[in-house]
Design a protein that fits this description.
about 40% helix; transcription regulation; about 300 residues; five-stranded mixed β-sheet; alpha/beta; 10 helices
Length: about 300
């Protein structure tokens, strides 16, 4: 293939087809008509002498040649995107840019609320849109720039993917239960812990958590009586009944919750880690560099206030 005769815009078409596996969806993502997208795909097929994408079960799936091309094509586009974004200036005092952040209720309260308070006090016109984090890492939404930044958590030291990431905070777990709980007193034994009925906080619907993995190593199991997607309402839930929960220490403050006791878990648990994650195509995005710096500052303030 002669690159001088190759329309460089077709790389964008190729990437959109990789991302969507649909001619019509790829056309929408590039603001093209479906006929224009079909014509572009035809030109790609001629240029590479390969069908590149074939229809199967309602999807346009890449051929082996297309799969071979994909990592190199995406690396090239990512590099060009970094150069283009790096040339764009960003001024926090005059910008009216909207940043889209995917977060859980916990990371929203921890990081987004302080960020919003700061922005409002400084009369910035920057806008923040928070959406529910529906999976641990929404890779497609990040790569397509539908999401600028993800605030998520893990028990691993890093996510095993090609995304850019930075740990903001790590911390311990605590057990919460109502005062005068029939099984829970100032010291919590493993026997009583396992005898209690537990609430599992699972934003993405998993039926077990890291705690269950640790119990399994000991040949032990707990009774999960309820699974809920949101963390910040769990203290209220356990305060009114005999359910107990194991939650991040940063999610609770004794002075904020009544009729609830906070205890050490009866077994050693791995620390949870809160990360911010973004697509490497936007490493040089001046606006995102500013946003990440603000979140780093908030993380440092949280740790200072909690210590």
């Amino acid at each position: 293939m002669n690159l001088r005769q190759f329309d460089q815009n077709l790389w964008l078409v190729l990437d959109a087809l990789y991302q969507t596996q649909s001619v019509s969806d790829a056309a929408k993502s590039l603001s093209l008509s479906q006929s224009a997208m079909s014509h572009a795909l035809k030109r790609l097929r001629i240029a590479f002498n390969d069908p590149l994408f074939v229809r199967e079960n309602g999807k346009m799936l890449p051929t082996q040649k297309a799969l071979n091309i994909q990592p190199l094509a995406q690396q090239g586009l990512a590099l060009l995107n970094q150069v283009a974004i790096g040339l764009d200036s960003f001024c926090k005092n005059t910008s009216n840019r909207q940043f889209v952040i995917a977060a859980t209720d916990f990371t929203t309260k921890l990081f987004i609320y302080p960020l919003l308070n700061k922005l409002s006090s400084l009369n910035y016109n920057i806008r923040i849109k928070v959406i529910d984090l529906r999976s641990e890492i929404p890779i497609k939404a990040l790569s397509s720039n539908h999401i600028d930044l993800v605030l998520t958590f893990s028990h691993a030291h890093a996510f095993d993917n090609n995304l850019s990431q930075q740990k903001l905070i790590s911390g311990h777990y605590r057990v919460i239960a109502r005062k005068q709980h029939p099984l829970v007193s100032k010291e919590l034994s493993l026997e009583h812990y396992l005898s209690a009925k537990h609430v599992l906080v699972s934003p993405w619907g998993a039926e077990t958590g890291s705690l269950d993995n640790e119990l399994k190593k000991l040949g032990k199991y707990r009774h999960i009586a309820a699974t809920v997607p949101q963390l910040m309402n769990v203290a209220e839930l356990v305060s009114n009944g005999d359910l107990i929960a194991t939650v991040p220490a940063l999610s609770i403050r004794q002075h904020e919750i009544k009729n609830v006791q906070i205890l050490e878990p009866p077994i050693a648990l791995p620390d949870y880690k809160l990360f911010m994650v973004w697509h490497p195509s936007y490493n040089l995005d001046q606006g995102l560099i500013w946003l990440r710096s603000e979140l780093e500052t908030i993380a440092a303030q949280i740790l200072e206030g909690f210590s």
